[in-house]
Amino acid sequence: MKYKVLYRKYRPDNFDDIVGQEYIIKTLKNSIINGNISHAYIFSGPRGTGKTTTAKVFSKAINCLNPHDGSPCGECEFCKNFHDNPDIIEIDAASNNGVDEIRELIENVKLTPTNGKYKVYIIDEVHMLSTSAFNALLLTLEEPPAHSIFILATTNIENVPITILSRCQRYDFQKIKIDDIINRLKYICELEKIDADDEALNEIAYLSEGGMRDALSLLDQLSKSNQKITLELIEKQIKTISQKNIDELLTSIEDNDVEKCLNLINEYRIRAVDYKTLIKKIIEVASQKAKNIKISGIIKRLDFNDYKNLILKLADSLNKININVDSYTILEMIILDFFESSCNLINEYPVKEETIQNEVKNDEIEKEEKTEAIENNNNDDLVNIRINNCFVDAQKKYLEEAKEEIANFISIEVEGKVKSILIDSTVVAASSKNLILVCNNIHNVETANKMVKEIEDGLNKEFNKMYKIIFISNERWLQEKEKYIQNLKTKTVYKYIEEKEVSEEETIVNSVFDKNKIEII
Ligand SMILES: [Zn+2]
What we know:
Layout: H1 6-9, H2 22-33, E1 40-44, H3 51-63, H4 77-80, E2 88-92, H5 99-109, E3 119-124, H6 131-142, E4 148-154, H7 162-165, E5 169-172, H8 178-192, H9 198-207, H10 212-223, H11 231-238, H12 243-254, H13 258-270, H14 275-296, H15 304-317, H16 327-343, H17 356-371, H18 380-392, H19 396-412, H20 416-424, E6 425-430, E7 434-439, H21 444-450, H22 452-463, E8 468-473, H23 474-489, H24 505-513
Parallel strand pairs: 1-4, 1-5, 2-3, 3-4, 7-8
Antiparallel strand pairs: 6-7
Helix pairs in contact: 2-3, 5-6, 8-9, 9-10, 12-13, 12-14, 13-16, 14-15, 15-16, 17-18
Bound molecules: zinc ion (ZN).
Zinc ion (ZN) binds at residues 64-66, 72-73, 75-76, 78-79.
């Protein structure tokens, strides 16, 4: 028996098997149920998303003698003989872009259907038609015979003349979701007894970029090796790089590991991985990381701007790949330049031994005094210490915990001024022992800091947490955050600084935050 490629063998012949276009399928079924058929449709969308398959199933349903719930019955004369049906005419505009072919088609349009209700013309890649062919088609679309239906399909809707579009009902096909592709691959592997591990199927789905046809073609190609389909086999056979490879590369950049990064690039060069694909994938993953930073607000060694700069440079390199040099050399230079600009390779790596305290005590305080009049009532030491101590072990999980605790505290425990201060403020950083809160209203900072002891005690009583809290203005926070990011980049370590000890704690807090008292202790 002749081998049938998986894509053809498993091409859906009913609506239920078409994956990932639920809305379109539902609308088309409804039009069958309601007998509301149009004379011209255009299906647009990326390759392999089911446009032609949907066109075929739809043309079957239109002509089916006994459709069930908008779907072809699969049993009537028409359904059974669908494949060699003279009433379904398929034209591939990519190979028939001449006006003659369209003229011939239009002449046939006048003929009545042989055995169905309608003659259906499916024109694939319709954007490839020449201008005169489009003009000829337009004449027909303007006055279509009652028994004819046109279904145009295209991957480039922008190249289809507006005059044509305005005559058609338009459906935009979406890329198929990775999970939907994986499920279909699993289903087919089971029927075909193809041994493939989950990781490999994931990768095939990822590589196919939302196109079922590409996914099945890849599966076909890999299954011919007659061995278990694994990630290694994919890498070996497809000359591509896996999601895992990209993660490795970006992790080496994040870890400031120049050597590993260059080794990886060289490995891809030796494997002759397609440069365009590689760059596209790095950009995809890097932009996801950049977006995550914006959304979560988590501070990491590489920040949003670092990723943004990398992405822009990589995208720019795609314009240079036709220049007659090894594209990978360009990639190496981009990455090295990136290390240089974002990672401070020289001297500051490995870890600096000084703590932030020294830095703060020098010129920083002078700068801040100008902008932070409200906070700098001679309590800057304690403010700095508490900010520093919070950064020693600031973590997202602590931040989430603290946010929840403060929210609970507001809702159940506190009243009056403390409540309004807390409602006005946001926890912006947290360790297990320290919290930094920003007052939205800058005039509240001083008042808030006078209530610190009360809030600390309350949180202790309620949640058994011995937090040291500091309130600062948003402006101050932005400066501190910036410093923190810089320190992360240079791997400067924050060290815990003891707060000054005294006999009566309450007095300290009061004195420290009291505007009128000059001395701390
Ligand atoms: Zn039927």
